[in-house]
Every structure is written in C-alpha cells, then in structure tokens.
Amino acid sequence: MFNPEMSHPLSSLTSGAISSPFSQLRKLLAGIAPGHEKPIELTIGEPREAMPDFIQAKLDEATALYGKYPPIRGAEEARKAISEWLAKRYVLPGGVDPERDVLMLSGSREGLFFACLPAVGRKDVQGRPAILMCNPYYSAYVAGAIAVGAEPVYLNATKATGFLPDLDAIARDEALLKRTVALFINSPSNPQGTVADRSYILKALELARAHNFMLFLDECYSEIYTETAPLGGLEVAAATPERFRNLVVFNSLSKRSNLPGLRSGFCAGDPEFIEAYSEVRNMCAPTVPLPLQHASAAIWRDEAHVERSRKAYRDKFLIADNVLGGRYGYQRPAGGFCLWLDMSQFGGGAQAAVTLWQRAGVKVIPGSFLAQTGRDGTNPGADYVRVAMVQDSKTIQEALERTISVLR
Q1: Which of 311, 336, 370, 371 is close enough to 188 for a disulfide, judged by CB 3.0 to 4.6 Å?
Q2: Do 346 and 199 reside in the same domain of the chain?
Q3: What is the pLDDT of residue 13?
C-alpha cells in the first residue's frame, strides 16, 4: 500500500495511488455489460471533426526533412507561423518574437510535463517545492510535479469559485507561496468550460511575479467556443510593463485543428524561461519532425477549417440546450467541448456513470476521476460527470436523450 510518508514521490504513480481517469473507468465498469445494443462513447476528448485537407500535401513537400534532426526550438518557419497566429488572434502590442518567445513542443502534454523541470530549478525554496494546479486538473500537471519531487497542491475549482481556483485564498497563504514554483491554470477549463477573464489572469500573474513563480496557462481549448473568443494570457501580460515575465502559455493543434495524432504544439511567453526550458528540452525531451513542423506552419495559417469545427460544436451545443434544458445544472460552457453535469441527486458522478452505462449504454467519465482531494478535504468532481461532445450531432442527441430517460 502506498505510504506518502515513507515512499518516494513517484510511488504515487507507480503504485496506482494516482492513475489515469481512463484506467479508473475501466476498473469501475469491469464486468458490466452496456445496457444498449449500440453503446456510445463520450469519455475521450478526441476531436472528430474534419482535419485540414492539405496536410498530406504539406508532409509530402517536406519528406526529405525526415533525414534531419529537428532544431530543439523548432524550425524558423513554424515558429514564425505561430507568432503570426498569436498576433492575429490576440491584441499583443509589440507582437511575439519567434526567436525568443516561442518554443515548439511535441504536443502540449509533454510540454506541460517537462516545464516543471526548469520551474523547480529556477527558484530556491526552503523545504519541499510546491506546484499548484487547478482541480480538476490535466494529468500532465500532477505527473510533472511528482517527477520533480514537488508537492502537488490541488486548488479546488467549484461552482462556488466560478469553476476556477480561488486566488484570494492562495494569496493569504504566505508559507505556501514561498515554496511555490509554478501554478497551472487551464482556460478554457477542462472539463467545466470556464474562461478566465482579464482581472483573474492579471491577479494570477501578479501573484506569480510577487512570489517569483511561473504561471503556466494551458490554453489548448482556446479555439473551441460558440460565442466569444476566450481571452489569452499573453494578451493580458502584453499590456503590463513586464510583458511576458513569469508567464508561459501552452497550446497545440490537437483540439484547434482536430489533429491529436500530429503531436504538434507550442509554448510562448517569458523569454528567459523559454531559454532555460529549451536547454532542458535539448537534453531529454522529444522534438517535432521537420515535415510535421512544415505542415503545422500551414495549419496555423489556416482558419477556415477551425471555423467549420466551431460551427459543428455550435450545432451540438444547441442540441444540448434543447435536450437538457436546465437539467443537471447544465449551462452552455464558454469554451471547450465538454459538459460538466451535476449528478448529486443520482448518487454522485461514479454511480451515475455506472447507471448510464448499465441502463443506457452511454459511457462518461466520473468527475472524481479527473480530480484529487483538495486542500479542504473534498473532491470537487465527486458530484459530476464529464461528457465529451466529440461524436456527430445525431449521436450526441441520442446519447443525451438516453441520459435523461434513465436519470430523471
């Protein structure tokens, strides 16, 4: 049995004390047959809208580049395309320097994980370093914290806090802030779909600067919205005298362009951190093959396929509006493609997930599997299930109709 007082921090991963939500779901549903001849899978956040149709042509143009090692910072062509996209997407006085402010990643997941190395190395602390993270969280945050020997501190994001961590509560904990080396915030948040506004991001950035830790903003769902385009961290930081100091944002083509298998992303922000981070990555991290970078540059420059995806998600959320109404605390999220449904009246998220699978053949993720027990002793996902709206509209409608038929 895992004993946090006696074991190495990595034991929490190798022992299964902390595990993938999908591994937990397999165990929860093991031996339970689906209650419908046509099961519907709504657990994995894998976009299924159309990818850009020019990808293969772009890869073919650069086939010879498979014979070269990719530069650790990324090809100039790709970094320039990313900086241009950022400048178009956000209001950025002074723009983004592709040479100093941008770093290519082999997908944002590994980037978020490896960012913990330079984060813990840049600040001397007394005692064990702490890495703070929104709770529910993305698995790379906690894995990165544990890998560098830092304490993962789970900041519950609940309905009472607007589904974002309570920064005022953190600001009052001076002892914790002295040990803090990084803070992970996801906006739009996964799974709740909340978008951090300007004042919230600025408050987080001011905390990071006052206590010299890194603010890591995971913006991978930034391009999936049905109404207003979410604000970005670089846009907030660019309006301050210090610009990007203490801030790095992460994004990728996985969600924006329906290309989770391309493994192409980037981080951008604090040039001093980017410099140190690139040295760390040069020693141990994966790089993006140059043909994939060539294709990525073209994809970042194309918005037509992104708008087509947005329209598809608008249609699916309109179905959710009509089918769910006000059930389960449903409100259309400001960003992302997930529903965060309150199942407290049905025994909580885990029990509801079993019921939906057993009686309706609809597979969803219990919210507790996406979170840990926070500082207040509660798991903020315990009452919820996450529904990934990645199937086609007809399948989404059927899944939601089955849901309300068994969870009345």
Answers
A1: 336
A2: no
A3: 78
Whose tokens are 């723009």? That residue is 95
DSSP string, 308-347: HHHHHHHHHHHHHHHHHTTGGG----SSSSEEEEE-GGGT
For residues 121 and 50, what is the distance between their CA atoms, to the nearest angstrom? 41
In order of 70, 213, 281, 294, the CA distances from 74 in angstroms are 7, 26, 11, 10
pLDDT band at 3 (very low <50, low <70, confident <90, very high): low
Within this chain, do residues 295 and 312 fall inside the same structural domain, yes or no? no
What lies within 8 Å, CB to CB, of 80 at 6+ separation is 98, 297
Give dist(CA 372, CA 382) in Å, integer.
9
Token readout for 33 is 């047959």
Residue ending a domain, choose from 258, 285, 300: 300
Average pLDDT, rounded, for the chain: 95
Element (H, E) at 266: strand 265-269
DSSP letter, residue 272: H
Average pLDDT of the segment spanning 262-287: 96
How confident is the model at residue 102, as a pLDDT?
98
The pTM assigned to this predicted structure is 0.95
Percentage of residues of the chain with pLDDT beyond 90: 94
DSSP 155: E
Domain boundary among 252, 272, 300: 300
What's the rounded mean pLDDT across residues 318-343?
Answer: 97
pLDDT digits (tens, 9 = 90+) for 27-85: 999 999 999 999 999 999 999 999 999 999 999 999 999 999 999 999 999 999 999 99
CA 78 to centroid of chain Cα atoms = 22
How far out from the chain centre does Cα 237 lie?
20
| Domain that includes residue 45, residue range | 11-50+305-406
Alpha carbons 144 and 137: distance in angstroms, whole number: 12
Query: Can you give the pLDDT at residue 17?
Result: 78
Q: Name the nearest CA neighbour of 330 among 315, 346, 341, 343.
A: 341
Q: What is the DSSP letter of 375?
A: T
Cβ neighbourhood burial of 168 (10 Å; 0-12, 13-18, 19+): exposed
Asked if the structure places residue 60 within a domain, the reply is no
